[in-house]
Amino acid sequence: MVRVGSHVSTRGGYRAAAEHAAATGSASFQYFPKNPRTLQPKAFDRSDAERCAAWCRERGIASIAHGPYPVNPASEGEAARRMALCTLNDLQIAEACGSVGVVVHFGAYKGADPLQGYRNILQWVNSVTALWSGKAQILLENQAGDHGPMGTTPEELAQIRSLAAHPEKIGFCLDTCHLFASGEWRPGQWEAYAERARRLGLWEHVRAIHLNDSRYPSGSRKDRHAAIGEGCIGREQFEELLGTPELKAVPLILETPVGADGTHREQIERVRRWSGEEDCDD
User: Fold this and answer.
1) Sorted alphabetically, which SMART domains does this protein's record hold (predicted)?
2) Distance of alpha carbon 56 from alpha carbon 37, whole angstroms
């Protein structure tokens, strides 16, 4: 079974989030380990997290956490220190929940020297991984280019990991809308991108895919998600992506608008059909 699911709320707790995901037909899910608007560490309910881990393990359901939006690995000084402590807290929660890792956006830097931005990211990654000994990984996510070109290419992801002090603690989360919006994925050229990623050794470290359609064309640098098959990427290109051998066991997470029933159930079923799980004319 393709491991497709969606982002779900943790309002009722981590175990309840997993149950809700499964009720919509998900084989994977994503959640915010704490308030996504703050860097403040959370004193979490470890027993609830461990019940989530056990429940998912019994049912073969994969999960990933998504770090707070203010986390910017390209930051400096006290801000970078606070963000590192925030991500360490997220990793602790993800580990307790049995999750693959914590998604962190690559980072944006507005200084005069772009290389300093990359140095900051590497320093930040090293500061977090030096203090982390669990199995959950930092999952660096590619960016759409709406805040600048940094973090849009597979080369950047691979290079940061290769230079890191603890590369085994770093994986990747690829967002399909970001790939398309940035222009890294051009219409009709998915295989070209996939082969480029193979040459870089990227696929073996991709732990999750944010499976999002795009409201805007390739190269627009606009990060606006559309429901699967209802945007500028569309069915044909998603079918090509879903046929990529390296993605067969990777969790596919929908961060798209919900359907009329308030869930992603219809889109989850659509992705399963397009991946070849069942015959359908849709």
Assistant:
1) AP2Ec
2) 27
C-alpha pair distances (Å), 79 with each of 67, 82, 248: 15, 5, 38
pLDDT digits (tens, 9 = 90+) for 201-250: 999 999 999 999 999 999 999 999 999 999 999 999 999 999 999 999 99
pTM: 0.96
How many residues would you count in the chain?
282
DSSP 155-217: HHHHHHHHHSS-GGGEEEEEEHHHHHHHTSS-TT-HHHHHHHHHHHT-GGGEEEEE--EESS-
CB-CB contact of 30 with 253 (8 Å) = yes
The pLDDT tens digits of the residues spanning 23-55 come to 999 999 999 999 999 999 999 999 999 999 999
Where do we find the tokens 């046929």?
243
Residue 93, CA distances (Å) to 34, 89, 140 in order: 9, 6, 17
- Asked if residue 282 has pLDDT above 50, the reply is no
Contact, 76 vs 120, CB < 8 A? yes
Per-residue pLDDT of 59-73, as tens digits, reads 999 999 999 999 999
> Which residues are paired to 102 by β-bridges?
65, 138
